[in-house]
Structures
1.
Amino acid sequence: MNKEELVAQVSRKTNVPRKVADTVVNGLFETISDALGNEEKVTIVGFGTFDVRERGERTGRNPRTGELIQIQSRKVATFVAGKGLKERLIEE
């Protein structure tokens, strides 16, 4: 499912115009992105938790040359599914 399909589903399930659903979905994504940018954890009970973690420096390999390279540490966004989502996935 891409973003347009998500907006369409939200519009149908909430019985609001597509333009309103688009605004809500964009607002949700922007809010989550802003929180992660401030290194805040976002927990949606029953769905999951978005968080920022530090990925340590490590040695990698250039796929073209096979040469060993040093990959710098960086921050990455993570998502851990909540209990409700996990249970829903097991059911289906």
2.
Amino acid sequence: MFMYLYELRDYFAPFNVFRYVSFRCVMTMITALCMSFMYPRFIGKLLERQVGQVVRDDGPQSHLKKRGTPTMGGSLILLSLVVSTLLWADLSNHYVWIFLSITTFFGAVGFIDDYLKIKEKGSKGLPGRWKLILQFFITGIAMVVLFQDQTLHYSSELYFPFLAADKFSLSLPIIAYALFAMVVIVGTSNAVNLTDGLDGLAIAPVSVAAGTFLILCYIGGTILQFPVNVDGVSTYASFDIAAYLKMPYIAGINELCIGCSAIIGSGIGFLWFNSYPAQVFMGDLGSLSLGGALGTLAVLSKNELLSLIICGLFLLEAISVITQTTSYKLTGKRVFKMAPIHHHFELKGWAEPKVIVRFWIISILLALIAIASLKIR
């Protein structure tokens, strides 16, 4: 919305700054962060309405004291993310609307799940199969829009980390790619949901991943122009960052940097109140929407496979649950003391803050590896 002030630059020169994605990223982050000032009052309202967390009796005993802690804090994360993106993004960019749509509708699925848990005072909520059906339905519509939109020229090419995009890629049939993309988005969403089991455990790695996608989206969609003097004539030269780093160039994808900044700003604001000991939990509303946002960023920026590294921590959590469930069904034995894996370390005697911080460190290391891949191609 504010970007359109750029059109008034001839009347007020400083408005020219609104054309720059970098400036709007900073302002988006500040806007989302400032909206987190609403949390104290928001938490108070949740306490009044007794919107409290339901804790499993078979989990770590230290978690029983968290019973009744306000949940559904993800509603304010989602509000901050959407509002700040709408204020600072170029609303004529269709990638922005696809990103916001998936994020918002996944949040709606999470809201239904949280509401049922609170209403029934149990930990079951919306059955898993219905979650998946709704998520795949939402992403299916998004894929149809993505490939039918003639303004995007979106391809079904699959690119590989550490390999030059101009030499190594796999061209998939549109249907095969769409199904793969849907699995990436839905899988990331549910992996983040599984990770959200300790105070601040999920939100910090989500913000780190969003920061990594911010860099990738900026590189993948930006052609720098700078003034040069050729034989006494002033002109402009262009520099394609994506081509230089052998990444695929996607026109307009740099506008998703605004969405990444919104995730970071709202995430940092939420972490202030979600850090150990947490005053509020994000609930499935927050984890499913944020996970869906990260998965969407991975697909739209053509970093589907690189996201296995960027979101590696979430992948580890999901694999631990799959491994535990499969092993128990086939052999009757458990691989871990409890899944997801963060509970395994708790039951081994690690203090909750130690598990949280060490998992944060892992997410930062994975982000650095992903960024390093830009020069190893």
3.
Amino acid sequence: MQSRRILMKAGLAAVALGTTNVTGHAAQESKSRGKSSGELPRQLTVLSIHQKDGRETLGVKTQAGVLDVAAASKLLGFSPPLTLEELLTNGGNAELAAVVAAALKSSKAKSTFWDESTIKFGRLFTNPGKIVCVGLNYREHVEEAGQKPPAEPILFNKYNNTLAPHNTTIKLPPRDLSYKFDYETELVVVIGRRASNVSVDEALSYVAGYAVGHDFSSRDLQLEKGGQWMVGKTLDGFAPIGPYFVSADQIDPNNLNLETRVNGEVRQSVNTAKFIFNPQKIIAYTSRLFALEPGDLIFTGTPSGVILGYPKEKQVWLKAGDKIESTIQGLGTLSFDLA
């Protein structure tokens, strides 16, 4: 019920916000939107639609279905941000709310609402400035890895080539390059305001929202070929994110149930209350090292239950044909398969 309420809120909020100036001209809207003022989205749940022309544009979940923002804007004469990254980096929350409100009221805009089951998902993020990842961030995962609990967050990175959408297929490399593939469901934190040297207490006020992410991993590249953590994490498509971005005002990141299923079998199950370093501690620590900018992503670490943690005689690595599902409470289920 909680997730259903979350997914309904975006449309209702848009109606309320859009009761003023919903007939503004596109040129005026575009001129009023400059660099992000730090205003964060509220009551917003969005996805990315892969359009027939190859564009990946915003879809907003409402009680009437998923609004194709690009199509509705063209039809109704609005000019809101058309991608999530544009919304986060340049602003435009009011303009987005206005086009949603206008589309919900307009009979001619009915064709711009989609049944989600018919949508081909695009990437929520295509060009973030930084993809920061946290290793060994659940105590039981530290134990299964045979490590000691870290005194500070262990940070590494992924690159933009790893970004992939919900319902993607990850193409595995040749076996002579790698074959020990492992799952890692993770909560992804999306930064909404520039954060430099922020305190733990104020850290969450810099978060725009959250999503389900998967730190897909090649364990042989990561651990057996010179300790190449970066290489083992950054092959093409090794960071699917989705299906939704949910604004931070709707989510408590420190109390979310997380689950991973492989071919329907539960492999990971935990609550984020068991973080060693919760999101606010990660943000505060990282922001002392370098500034976090709007649109930056933080993968917060995976819990126990990964294949790497099994006794060696029971390690059955992922292979072509497997289907992985990553679910986080309030954020939906990210699905992908392997080929």
